[in-house]
Write a structure and sequence with these properties.
The protein has 6 helices and 6 strands. With 197 residues, the chain is of the alpha/beta class. The chain has one domain: 3-Layer(aba) Sandwich (Rossmann fold), CATH 3.40.50. It has a 6-stranded parallel beta sheet, with helices on both faces. It is globular and about 45 Å long.
Length: 197
């Protein structure tokens, strides 16, 4: 089964993130769940974003790289996954790993350099509309990912809040969350099957 590095959102390592990891483990996958916030967890997005700014993007990326490094053993092909901020970090890691198996993004993306090469399957789950992932941004992101060589699949959830998979937040949408996790598990199953090809 797949080896997955799952990165948390700007809220920190909330119970919903550990529950997501358990959901993936129950499907047979090995999930690595680093805490990039040193135990800090936030209940509102403003406080989480303020803490993210205090740490800084470069330091968060360094921490994510540090979490991935021990997993990159010969023959291991990681699936990078993340929620919101964690999705942005996961995307950066996947684009830097020529052996990445896939990229699973929930609620967040990152910029794509014009010279990027990322010939892997990518699945994105995003609210529609989403204040953090605007229509113009997502269209540009999609085109750049396709230009880089990625096989991109986008799932949009009309009316859902930004972090709609977290039952502890006002954003939560049970129907959208169930649909996103079902599609995510199917995506991971396909990636797993591709290892045998």
């Amino acid at each position: 089964m797949a080896q997955i590095l799952l990165l948390h959102s700007a809220y920190g390592l909330r119970p919903a993130v550990t529950e997501a990891a358990e959901r993936l483990r129950a499907a047979g996958h090995t999930v690595h769940l680093p805490d990039l916030y040193d135990g800090k967890v936030f209940e509102d997005v403003e406080a989480g974003l303020e803490y993210r700014e205090r740490i800084g993007t470069d330091e968060l990326l360094r921490r994510a790289v540090g979490a991935a490094a021990p997993l990159l053993t010969p023959g291991t092909r990681l699936v990078y996954a993340g929620l919101s901020l964690g999705g942005a970090l996961a995307q950066n890691l996947a684009l830097a790993d020529e052996h990445a198996l896939g990229l699973l993004l929930l609620h967040g993306t990152s910029d794509v350099r014009d010279d990027a090469v990322v010939e892997i399957p990518v699945q994105l789950h995003v609210a529609e509309p989403d204040p953090f992932e605007t229509e113009d941004w997502l269209n540009a992101w999609y085109l750049r990912m396709r230009k880089a060589g990625a096989e991109v699949e986008v799932h949009r959830y009309r009316g859902a809040g930004h972090l709609f998979t977290d039952p502890g937040l006002a954003d939560y949408d049970a129907e959208a969350s169930d649909a996103a996790w079902a599609a995510s598990l199917a995506f991971l199953s396909e990636l797993d099957a591709s290892l045998d090809d």
